[in-house]
Amino acid sequence: MLEVTGLRVRFRRLGALRALLEGVRDPYVAAVEDVALAIGRATTFALVGESGSGKTTLGRAIVGLTPAQAGSVRFEGQELLGLSDRALRPWRRQLQMMFQDPVASLSPRLTVRALVGEPLRIHGAAAGDLQPEAPRLLAMVGLGADFLERYPHELSGGQARRVGVARALALEPKLIIADEPTAGLDVSVQGEILNLLARLQDRHGISYLIITHNLPVVRRISERIAIMYLGRFVEEGPTEKVFARPAHPYTLALLAATPRPDPALRRAEVELKGEIPSLAQRPEACEFHTRCPFVQPRCRAEAPQLREVAPGHLARCHFPWVGSRA
Predict the structure, then answer these.
(1) Which region among 1-5, 35-39, 73-77, 213-217 has the lowest average model confidence (pLDDT)?
(2) Cβ contacts of residue 301 below 8 Å, gap of 6+?
(3) Rg of the chain over CA atoms, in angstroms?
(4) Residue 149 pLDDT level (bands cut at 50, 70, 90)
(5) Whether 313 contacts 291, CB under 8 Å
(6) Residue 212's beta-bridge partner residues?
(7) Chain Cα centroid distance, residue 232
């Protein structure tokens, strides 16, 4: 249903005059670089990485909120990149986005009734059609009609997230991009939101692109996962295969940092060195080599390509499986 190929998103970091004075030939940074992914109907694709890895920028570029400089975004065969706002508008009904902060993404001046009905008004629904829609949408996400006249500051984090889901459902989309859908929520509330998303997928055939750093969430809800680092995919594959035997050291380190209650299931400690580098100062060759616990001389001299290391399982590493356990 969604096919992204060669996607590139760049941001200017220096003005033209300053770049000229400082002798900087390329005053841009690439937040997303040569990304490709595919999402089928009624499936969930998860995107994982540290803050600053480019996950949210990728999601915003897919729905057209952030312009992309190269690549292709095809939805049901229609190329979306390069479309005017007017031409893109009908397709935006099918592609909706849930933003990371469930409260801040809701206007504090509007009631829940107005917030849930806003997408319908924007897309030209008649006033008479809006009256029954708000309570129907709230019922779909497990909220009663008594929430209709509340304002965002009167909602808990979990309730605000449910209102965000209802807003995303208003136009009956085929794909929802959910940016950190469980961020800031208690563990029990996280489970409720995940169960809600799963039920909606079963009933309505919705596809999800889940953006998160929470690996337990990924394992529970997604069929396929991609690990992102400095704007590139470093590993992609079926979720269970990636969890069972990570091919890239970065994936291994992320999994090792995930709390596991059973000591017998805990992985050997794999420590990442330092912080994620600045996009303006990308390391040469393998961009992960400055933090990799298994770095070799080749990693500092040659950039690896994303390649298939097992059926359907890809990794951007010269020495896949290093440090992992079958």
Answers:
(1) 213-217
(2) 285
(3) 21
(4) very high
(5) no
(6) 48
(7) 13
Tell me the angle at which helices 127-140 and 112-122 cross, rounded to the nearest 10 degrees.
120
Give the residue extent of every domain in the chain: 244-326
**Whether the predicted pLDDT of 127 surpasses 60:** no
What angle do helix axes 187-204 and 157-169 make, rounded to 10 degrees? 20
pLDDT (tens digit per residue) in 229-271: 999 999 999 999 999 999 999 999 999 877 666 655 555 567 7
The torsion angles phi and psi of 241, rounded to 5 degrees, stand at -70, -40
User: Model's pTM, two decimal places?
Assistant: 0.91
Integer angstrom CA distances of residue 56 from 3, 17, 86, 160, 195: 17, 30, 24, 20, 23
Structure tokens at 210: 């889940």
Model confidence pLDDT, tens digit, residues 186-214: 888 888 888 899 999 999 999 999 999 88
Tokens matching residue 320: 């896949």
